[in-house]
Amino acid sequence: MFRTANTLPLIFLLLAVACSGPATTPLVDGGSTEENVPIDWSAHEDFDLDAYREPPIAASVEVVHDVPEMLLSRSNMPLYSRQEQSGFRIQIVSTLSKQEADQAVEDALTWWRDFEQDTSLSDLYPRSEPEPPVYQDFRAPYYRVRIGNFISRANAERLLEVVAESYASSFIAPDQVIVE
Prior knowledge:
Layout: H1 4-20, H2 69-72, E1 83-95, H3 98-117, E2 134-139, E3 142-150, H4 153-166, E4 171-179
Antiparallel strand pairs: 1-3, 1-4, 2-3
């Protein structure tokens, strides 16, 4: 019986010799009188690279945009600029549920549109904003729904009296507000 320790190196040596195969030799020119001269393939090459060259790009390429011209020009600045500063908003809802907050935003948007149409309340809030000032804010773990952009607390208190009729638990909260 053969010992396993003696046969393992012998098996690896046989595998290494059997798998190595013959040595490769470079291609040589058979018609040459000198031995082992590499073949010069450039004499036999008929590939024309010029057939695949791309023509140069024309310098006067016109770019056509899908963007309207008024948006491309810098002279048409927006009529409503959004700057933030410290101020006040009226908080109408604070909840743990995202769905409740989303529903409160929809209700507040409806309330705000009705408020805007009431001409007797026009002095309480200027109607210069393009969108209703209804904001949803998430500060863990609460979703807060707030309305308005007030610089002074006195203006917020005037609107709070009207808002409290629909949202009894509403109050004035300090916040970063958007001003024109």
